[in-house]
Amino acid sequence: MKRRTPQDFAAWLHGRLVAKGYSLALRGGGVSRFAEDAGVSKATISRVLRGEGSTDIAVLEKIAQALGVRLGVILVEAGVIDPDELGGAQRPQGHMTADEAADGLGITDPTGRQVFRGVVDSLKPGDPTAG
């Protein structure tokens, strides 16, 4: 499988930020807000979103934490490692988040993702509304 390019990562990150409610319009403030949430400079996030991004692991780790995704996912999406190289280590423990499942299923529309998260949340154990 081919490693992803910085442009691929930029497109992926853009989609994730929009899905999480960050406005990436020219004066929307979403880049600044995400940069602050991630603890990374606005200039760094802007470079990443232009496809000129850093593969600095510390930056990628902060992006992963701010997005609530595992570092392994970010490393693959950023092209640092090939998905095949990650292998079984990608999911050593824990559960897949609804956003990770939506990514895997190719659900990119923000409304579709919100509906998908609602369905997943309603089916979680301990939810009195779960069927």
How would you describe what is shown here?
- It is a single chain.
- The chain has 131 residues and is mainly alpha-helical.
- Helix content is 57%, strand content 0%.
- It has helices at 6-19, 30-38, 42-49, 57-67, 71-77, 83-86, 98-105, 110-123.
- It is globular and about 40 Å long.
Structural class: mainly alpha
Shape: globular
Order of helices and strands: HHHHHHHH
Instruction: Work out the strand percent.
Output: under 5%
Number of E-state strands: 0
User: How many strands, which pairing sense, and closed or not: the largest β-sheet?
Assistant: none
Cα(first) to Cα(last) distance is 39 Å
Helicity level, as a percent range?
Answer: 55-70%
Short structural summary:
With 131 residues, the chain is an all-alpha fold.
Draw up the topology in text.
Blueprint (H helix, E strand, L loop, with lengths): L5 H14 L10 H9 L3 H8 L7 H11 L3 H7 L5 H4 L11 H8 L4 H14 L8
Helix pairs in contact: 2-3, 4-5
Descriptive keywords:
131 residues; mainly alpha; 8 helices; 57% helix; globular
